[in-house]
Amino acid sequence: MTACRICGGDLVEFYDFGRQPLSDAFHKPGQFQDEFFFRLAVGLCTDCTMVQLMEEVPRDKMFHEDYPYYSSGSAVMRKHFELTARRFIETELTGPAPFAVEIGSNDGIMLKTIADAGIKHLGVEPSGGVAELSRSKGVRVLNEFFQESTAVEIAATDGQADVIFSANTICHIPYLDSIFKGVDALLKPNGVFVFEDPYLGEIVRRTSFDQIYDEHYYFFTARSVQSMARRYGFELVDVERLPVHGGETRYTIARQGARQPSPAVAEMIAEENARGLATLPTLEGFGENVTKIKDDLVALLTKLKAEGKTVAAYGATAKSATVANLCGLSADLVSYVCDTTPQKQNRVSPGTHIPVRPAEAFHEDTPDYALLFAWNHAEEIMAKEKQFRDGGGKWILYVPEVHVV
Ligand code: DWN
Ligand code: SAH
Ligand code: ZN
């Protein structure tokens, strides 16, 4: 048995996805001899209830100069982060010399609005390519991993922050002890640390198992975040459900005693406890649903192939590495995957080596069926590709179960 990364308690494994590659490693065709693999498995801490990976991938293998995920590729996400920034500008950033820090600022999707408003800010972003793009938008960035030492450095040069924000990044960081020590050094006495990440409650409800991959180390609940915050001298003071990326929760954390927790916190924890969310029977049931989706998807794609139908995939997501490698989907079942990201195009998908082609391929070489790997952007993509269905094309989705629309 492995120990919980947060509290040292017993970690009980509940699903093994087997040998998996780095989810964002798109190699050039034929250049994947030294491809990195690890065992992707997920477990529950029976003490603090934190759900987490059993094995950790070294951070420099995932987040580096060529990290290919550019947050601004989705119009819905651009809007989401613009509204997030505006809300901070109107609430937490109204003092005399406001300062906002973002952990994992990527291509500046959120901080751009804060920068345009003339407010002092700093993004902390270890991946060089995305950090450079954000600079070209006028965003101030430190190209480093956020950790205690980075936070101490920022506090010394820039002073303490009113808001430390982070989206889809805190769940990527195994070393959260160092993060909380950093937040302690960098946050003003009445400041807030706000982060949003995929919600375990939604992953279990929808069986969205492809949220589990190398970069996603933790799967939070209000209960596990409350317990973690207290361990490091903080308090969970608000929770808010978000519709983006298939269902997330935004957690607001303050120093212990600084702010009154909203009733939403106790309500959400009560709801989690009532459904037995972070318990082994629930999570083992989730595992059975994953296996069923895997079997159903392989059966459907095998049948379509036998019928002579063509299938391509849409969106070379990090999530899809889990689906493709769990189901063994290679180019004989899925002829290509189209994606708007230049850094992924003309490369092959991690592990199963499906060719990645530009979005235009979808119009020039239209398949009979499109497997929607970017299912979290279904509304945006289906609206954009309306003519696909009008022309008789069909979408295949695998969350919450395998279905064709
Ligand atoms: O947590 C993470 C999230 C925020 O982003 C990271 N660990 C990595 C990444 O995960 P992902 O790759 O699963 O995220 P998305 O947002 O589901 O990726 C969408 C992909 O689809 C991108 O490669 C862009 C592409 N895309 C497209 O080709 N056409 C997206 C849209 C909206 C489109 O219209
Ligand atoms: N906030 C963006 C990006 C999410 S992708 C969004 O919501 O779309 C995760 C990002 O976290 C990547 O850009 C990665 O480089 C960054 N990251 C990973 N570890 C980090 C750390 N320790 N400190 C700061 N950023 C980190
Ligand atoms: Zn624990």
Task: Report a brief summary of the structure.
With 405 residues, the protein is an alpha/beta fold. It has helices spanning 59-62, 75-90, 111-116, 128-136, 148-158, 176-186, 200-206, 222-231, 263-274, 280-306, 319-327, 361-364, 378-384, 386-390; strands at residues 2-3, 10-21, 37-45, 51-53, 99-103, 120-124, 141-142, 161-167, 187-198, 218-219, 234-242, 248-255, 311-314, 337-338, 356-357, 369-372, 394-397, 403-404.
List the helices and strands and how they pair.
Blueprint: E1 2-3, E2 10-21, E3 37-45, E4 51-53, H1 59-62, H2 75-90, E5 99-103, H3 111-116, E6 120-124, H4 128-136, E7 141-142, H5 148-158, E8 161-167, H6 176-186, E9 187-198, H7 200-206, E10 218-219, H8 222-231, E11 234-242, E12 248-255, H9 263-274, H10 280-306, E13 311-314, H11 319-327, E14 337-338, E15 356-357, H12 361-364, E16 369-372, H13 378-384, H14 386-390, E17 394-397, E18 403-404
Parallel strand pairs: 5-6, 5-8, 6-7, 8-9, 13-14, 13-16, 14-15, 16-17
Antiparallel strand pairs: 1-2, 2-3, 3-4, 4-10, 9-12, 11-12, 17-18
Helix pairs in contact: 5-6
The structure holds ligand DWN, S-adenosyl-L-homocysteine and zinc ion.
Structural overview:
With 405 residues, the protein is of the alpha/beta class. It is 34% helix and 23% strand. The chain has 14 helices and 18 strands. It has helices at 59-62, 75-90, 111-116, 128-136, 148-158, 176-186, 200-206, 222-231, 263-274, 280-306, 319-327, 361-364, 378-384, 386-390, and strands at 2-3, 10-21, 37-45, 51-53, 99-103, 120-124, 141-142, 161-167, 187-198, 218-219, 234-242, 248-255, 311-314, 337-338, 356-357, 369-372, 394-397, 403-404. A seven-stranded mixed beta sheet has the order 7-6-5-8-9-12-11. α5 (148-158) packs parallel to α6 (176-186). The chain is globular. The structure holds ligand DWN, S-adenosyl-L-homocysteine and zinc ion.
